[in-house]
Amino acid sequence: MTKTTFTIQELTALVTEIFAGAGLSTLHAEALAQVITSAERDACKSHGIYRIEGCLRTIKAGKVVADAEPVMTVDNSAIVRVDALGGFSSAAFEMGVSALASRVSDLGIAALVLNNCTHFSALWHEIELLTDRGLVGMAMCPSYACVAPTGGSEALLGTNPFAFGWPRAGGDPYIFDFATSVAARGEIELYRQAGKPLPEGWAIDATGNPTTDPSAALAGAMLPFGAHKGSAISTMIELIAGIMIGDATSVESLAALGSMTLAPTHGELILAFDPARFAAGHGGDPLQRAEKLFEAILGQGARLPSQRRFTARANAVTNGITLSADEVEVLNRLHSGGLSAID
Q1: Any alpha helices (H) in the chain, and if so which ranges?
Q2: CATH of domain 68-181+225-305
């Protein structure tokens, strides 16, 4: 089947038009299109154009405020807070990131709290906006209850992603971003769409038994990565990026939505550090010292996380983003039909 290649700018414009046509304000349409196109550019298919329908379904269900104007609060503390007022998180983060960087410049460490937002995206996009400023960053958030704790039999935790970034002078940053479930829920949906069985150990069905059937997994629960270790990290995220910031846990988010076909509503916690301030007077330049560690890792034949993503990005910048005929059909259907094209 015929494939179509878009420039990054062309795909961004098309996705922006889809969201604007569905009723999002320019602020949100542009923010979401940037995030989704960045995922396609970096060959992160589970967070690319596949996510558009879920966002539109959430808009159609009235579970997100399409024209919300985030409100930022900055005081003398290390905490910057942005209330998304029921809108998508991407625009709220864009509003708060400069203030976060400013507080880090003053204090060496600061936190950005996003409240009352609808979240659908990977976290590495946000982390890169910190590493681009020479900052070390961490980000985390709950999701909706679709993961059983280790030893449990029912969904209680979210996929609860965690991301970390370290800046590198003259090179791509060191970034990892992973769900604390054994896989992202979007990955299981892609297995279902492809008619492929899941790997063993990814999920349980609605009765609590192990399954490799993606549909049964989606009706049951995923499992944490690393057994009790992933379960503990996921619980930590519920505590500090949900309860501690006064926002929803994954159970509460699912209860509010009533469906996992919609983008979840919760909060997000972003932490940023100035590595030079932390190392001041001790140990030399932290960025140079880190390069020795990265060189040692690569020297053993290992790779750094996100290397494949950065390779895909370089290719897309030069050669564009190639989509399948089915993907293009989806884009055209959503562009012409808007919310009426959504079940």
Answers
A1: 8-21, 26-41, 52-60, 89-107, 124-131, 185-194, 214-219, 228-238, 250-257, 275-279, 286-299, 307-319, 325-337
A2: 3.30.1370.60
